[in-house]
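Dear support,

I submitted the protein below through the web form. The confirmation email said the job was done, but the results page showed an empty box. After a refresh the structure appeared. I'm attaching both so you can tell me whether what I see now is the final result or a partial one.
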Amino acid sequence: MAGKAAKAAKFVVNAIGEYQYPWREKLLTKYKDELSIGVWKPLGISGRRRARLRKEVLLAGEDWPYYPERKEMRTKRKGHKVDRIAAEKRARTAELMKSMSQKLLDYKKRRWEKKMKEEDSKAAKG
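What the results page shows now:
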């Protein structure tokens, strides 16, 4: 009885071993150029089989070297330019309003001095 169970277990192990892909040999020989995705070329391996190979490699604890290269991050801002400019204008206005009281005092002083000069020049002529 024990012999039959051992034979059955060996049969199952052999069947599973045959079912699993010998991925190391396939990666190094047959599919080396086809696994890296870049420029289109006719496939020698389907996407489903490629995914299965990748999964088996990762489950075996090895790295998958065929990931496509990452593109640069997008630097273009989203949204409307008007909104961005309006926010910058509001910030600048708030900054300028801090010095507004001093500017008003300077303006009033200049006007008063101009008025005094005009009065002095009228008094000198007259």
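Response: this is the final, complete result; the empty box was a page-load delay. The longest helix spans residues 100-125.
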